[in-house]
Amino acid sequence: MNKVGIVGCGITPFTRDDQRIESILLKSAKILFENNSEINKDLIDAVLVSTNNNSKYLSPILSEITGIKPKIAHSIESLCNSGTNSIVSAYSYIASGLADMVLVSGAERYDSPGQVLQWDNSRGEFKHPIFWASIFAKSYKQKYSISDEQLALVSVKNHKHAKENPNALSKKTYSVQEVMDSKKLTDDLKLLDCSRPCTGGASIILASEEMTKKITSMPTWITGIGQRTTSASFTKNSSLNSMESTKLSGQMALKMANKTINDIDVAEIHDAFSVCEPMALESLGFSNNGEGMKMIKETNSTDDFKINPRGGLIGCGHPLGATGIAQTIEISQQLQLDAGKRQVDDPRVGLVHNMSAAATSSTVLILEK
Amino acid sequence: MNKVGIVGCGITPFTRDDQRIESILLKSAKILFENNSEINKDLIDAVLVSTNNNSKYLSPILSEITGIKPKIAHSIESLCNSGTNSIVSAYSYIASGLADMVLVSGAERYDSPGQVLQWDNSRGEFKHPIFWASIFAKSYKQKYSISDEQLALVSVKNHKHAKENPNALSKKTYSVQEVMDSKKLTDDLKLLDCSRPCTGGASIILASEEMTKKITSMPTWITGIGQRTTSASFTKNSSLNSMESTKLSGQMALKMANKTINDIDVAEIHDAFSVCEPMALESLGFSNNGEGMKMIKETNSTDDFKINPRGGLIGCGHPLGATGIAQTIEISQQLQLDAGKRQVDDPRVGLVHNMSAAATSSTVLILEK
Fold it and tell me: Could you tell me the pTM of the whole model?
């Protein structure tokens, strides 16, 4: 298979601002082109927009306002993992030979319609993701005797990481007690256990091996891709304590990259809610079942492996269509040793985990320099 | 590049019915699987949904209700050429090696939000596509001295073809005089000059060369792909008498297939409005500029070359996200000699032309058996 590299990226601050979706798209693309003046827009063959916004024809709109006349132009939606779905689609356009260079731009508004799970009748009245997250939390805590105080570490850690990320929504750090004392939303989740929907954009450019080597002497390569959708409905999940789609995606991505989980030096994990982080780590094989929190605690004080160095969804905020792209940008910047105060010690291999709707769908990417 | 074949298809009747988008998707997929019992759903690696509907997560929903657990699952939107964009994306997943078999399912409701061109401020108050079509019609008629009576032939012919298509919205035929006497919508367009938005679905399965040969002894191959987006806004079009994106897409697709326009035996042309058919024929190189209507008149009475044998958008109706897929299915069935009373004499090479928003974006596909 043809190699595909990452040759540029741009990201907006994540906020609660009321901005037009077109403005958010333009903003991150503009930052990308300012950061990467060596990229010739005339050589961009495809523009893919990742969003849950209801506006139509956003790729031609973004193309027109940025001065690109692409061959391929369309939007992609898959709720919270729209971003990595778009990156994988860009990868396939390049690896198939239909494109040499692809701009992928993700954007969302704080009031995204993707936050409401309209279709899933199995949830009865419960259309907000917090209901599946509560059931996951209750089940996981019971099965592995994990306390709310232990789970709170995910939020403490990710807010601490986010403080070093200038684009993160959260600017504060919190103690375990402060997480415990935050507003109780359900029996098993407090406000600070949850990622917040927000306004934000993230753009990335992927290119063929030849094009990548022309543009940069220090590329990041996408070497592993794993994806799986097991269902749309929460109640079709085979387990309430693990993430089947994440497990299958992780195995597939590692196999493609010819790596094992022990080779991973830095990881972005889809912590839509605090319980998701240990569950995903276990499903990916980073730790044994029930030992995800132990691993989070152990790695929290080191600099040679970090989970969610940019602050995760809990610290950064969660602009649905942009999240998977922002995660991929973080891992790329980590591999480039370009992550500022968030930098992990000399990482060689990174992992991105991005999922939708109670892990009914997952994407895992392996990146290498 | 790896070869990609068409191994199955299913299409619903096009109606004005009030159906849920999930039901429309399921219906065409169900027809596909009933028509092609040899297709093993467990081997479907990707499910792509083509629609302008605002519902989210439709690919996982379709996957769940049809019993597919795909790797890749997402929706694709690019207004009226969402369908062919989805087919090209499926092609790229297969040609890149990420997938062996892909289900592409397009669906739309009669009240699709894709009918309103919200973004294009250059149109002032005119958000309905009929306004760009009227300007195209006025300009084209003036430049080439074409009368309303001459243009009416497009509608007469496509309604006549649609009568032989059991899935078409229109069940009637009309005379030139009846088209002329139909309700005047603008100075330059009457009701029967327009395609009607409708409710409908179309599903197609693409597969790798190896998989295709296992499933069918009479495959259709996608041998040429051309795409171009020149802008999002109508007023950025370089000409009001030709379609730049169609011209570039046509050249690109023919080059990839190593064919000339004279090799084409049957064509589906995106006749959103009557004037689009001669304009597209000219931009594709089927005829000289200004001679599209002459060609339509000449080929109307023969059976060895047909333009829009299924009835085009004017005769079939236009369920936005399904249209490009329905066009591709028609050409595939024509090449398979499986088009019933619409059959063209032994075609070897076919062309699909699908576009969006005043031809600001076009896709051209070349199919061969």
Answer: 0.98
Residue A123 pLDDT > 70: no
Please give the class, per CATH, of domain A4-111+198-220: alpha beta
Ranges of chain B with pLDDT below 50: none
Residue A352: pLDDT above 80? yes
CB–CB of B227 and A356 under 8 A? no
Which residue from A195, A133, A134, A156 is spatially nearest to A293, judged by alpha carbons? A156
Round to whole Å and give the CA distance between A131 and A124. 11
Question: Per-residue confidence at A121, pLDDT binned at 50, 70, 90?
Answer: low
Interface of B with A in 15-54 (CB under 8 A): 22, 47, 52, 54
Residues in chain A: 369
Return the pLDDT at B59. 98
Task: Name the CATH superfamily housing domain A127-196+223-368.
Answer: Thiolase/Chalcone synthase (3.40.47.10)
Contact A74 B73 (CB under 8 A): no
Token pair of B82, please? 């969402």
Give pLDDT, residue A131.
87
* ipTM for the assembly: 0.97
Tokens encoding A340: 């500022």
Q: What is the CATH number of domain B4-114+197-215?
A: 3.40.47.10
Q: How would you label B172-205 residue by residue, b for 16+ Cβ within 10 Å and e otherwise?
A: eebeeebbbebeebbebbbebbbbbbbbbbbbbb
Contact present, A77 and B74 (Cβ < 8 Å): yes
Partner residue facing B232 (CB), from A61, A74, A88: A61
A1 pLDDT more than 90: no
Asked if A119 is an interface residue toward chain B (Cβ–Cβ < 8 A), one would say: yes
A233 to chain B, any CB pair closer than 8 A? The answer is yes
Name the residue ranges covered by the structural domains of chain B.
4-114+197-215
Q: What is the DSSP letter of B14?
A: P
| CATH fold match for the domains A4-111+198-220 and A127-196+223-368 | yes
Percent of chain A residues topping a pLDDT of 90: 89
What are B208's strand-pairing partners?
B4
Question: What CA–CA distance (Å, rounded) separates A152 from A178?
Answer: 9
Shortest alpha-carbon distance between residue B96 and chain A (Å): 4
Neighbours of A164 (CB within 10 A): 16
